[in-house]
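Customer escalation, tier 2.

The customer says the design service returned an amino acid string that "doesn't look like it belongs to this structure." They asked us to rerun it and document both sides in this ticket. The original structure tokens are below, unchanged.
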């Protein structure tokens, strides 16, 4: 996640396709949005080299 600071996924989740990785990012963003304190942050999906391949905004 990112909002000026980074909070990397400690589990190192990997997915077989970009679509699967983005779907997981969307699910995570929805879950975090329920908390209310993560609004304005992003879930950033990256490849194995750490390059950003997707970004999902949390909340409105």
């Amino acid at each position: 996640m990112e909002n000026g600071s980074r909070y990397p996924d400690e589990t190192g989740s990997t997915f077989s396709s970009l679509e699967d990785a983005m779907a997981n990012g969307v699910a995570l963003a929805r879950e975090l949005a329920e908390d209310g304190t993560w609004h304005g942050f992003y879930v950033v999906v990256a490849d194995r080299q750490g390059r950003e391949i997707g970004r999902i905004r949390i909340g409105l």
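Tier 2 assessment: The sequence is consistent with the input. The two ends are 16 Å apart (CA to CA). The longest helix spans residues 18-35. Sent an explanation to the customer and offered a walkthrough call.
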